[in-house]
Specification:
- The chain is of the alpha+beta class and 189 residues long.
- It has one domain (3-183): Cyclic phosphodiesterase (Cyclic Phosphodiesterase, Chain: A, Alpha-Beta Complex).
- The chain is 29% helix and 41% strand.
- The strands form 2 sheets. The protein has a 5-stranded antiparallel beta sheet. Strands 3-1-8-9 form a 4-stranded antiparallel beta sheet.
- The termini are far apart.
């Protein structure tokens, strides 16, 4: 049985990705040693499934169609740079994303479908964010530097489609290939 590494995400418009790329360049000047995510691959992950059987992708695509018809597009505010597990010990540097209750409900609906399909579900609380970079070793002064970016506003972005991506890992990083795209066409609340 052939397996593929997949995740479900909401992609961002090109103009937003350019704004995020400029923010990453600014951060890179003050935070050396980070491994920055290529701006064109930044997205809001709703579910990372890991390696699953390829024959599950069609069922997942059908579930995504039903979800897409129930949920409207979301305009999300992008602001505030933070880090997991903390600003003082960053392993992941992120940009905050606020899409209100719709994003939380969309994430919950996707998890319900994944459970029904007996596919893996991440049990951690959903914290909408865009990963900007990763750090492998301690970065002196990171807390102070990241604090200075904590209220950075990067505007807003329309999130209007769900994409099931296949992720192929390679020496230059991950290649994300869309396997199924579904528009969010549900009624506005």
């Amino acid at each position: 049985m052939h397996k593929v590494r997949v995740f479900v995400a909401l992609p961002l418009p090109e103009a937003t990705l350019r704004t995020i790329g400029a923010l990453q360049q600014e951060l890179a000047e003050t935070l050396p040693g980070m491994r920055w995510v290529k701006p064109e691959t930044i997205h809001l992950t709703l579910a990372f499934l890991g390696d699953i059987a390829e024959d599950s992708l069609e069922k997942l695509g059908s579930s995504m169609l039903s979800i897409g018809s129930l949920y409207p597009p979301v305009t999300a505010a992008l602001s505030g740079v933070g880090a997991f597990p903390s600003r003082h010990r960053p392993r992941v540097i992120w940009l905050g994303l606020d899409g209100g209750d719709t994003l939380v409900r969309l994430h919950g609906a996707l998890n319900t479908e994944l459970n029904a399909l007996q596919l893996p579900v991440d049990e951690r609380p959903f914290v909408p964010h865009l990963t900007l970079g990763r750090c492998r070793k301690p970065t002196p002064g990171a807390g102070r530097i990241l604090e200075s970016f904590s209220d950075r506003n990067c505007g807003s972005a329309p999130l209007d489609r769900l994409v099931l991506y296949e992720s192929r890992l390679g020496p230059q990083g991950a290649l994300h290939l869309p396997r199924c795209t579904v528009s969010l066409t549900g009624p506005q609340p």
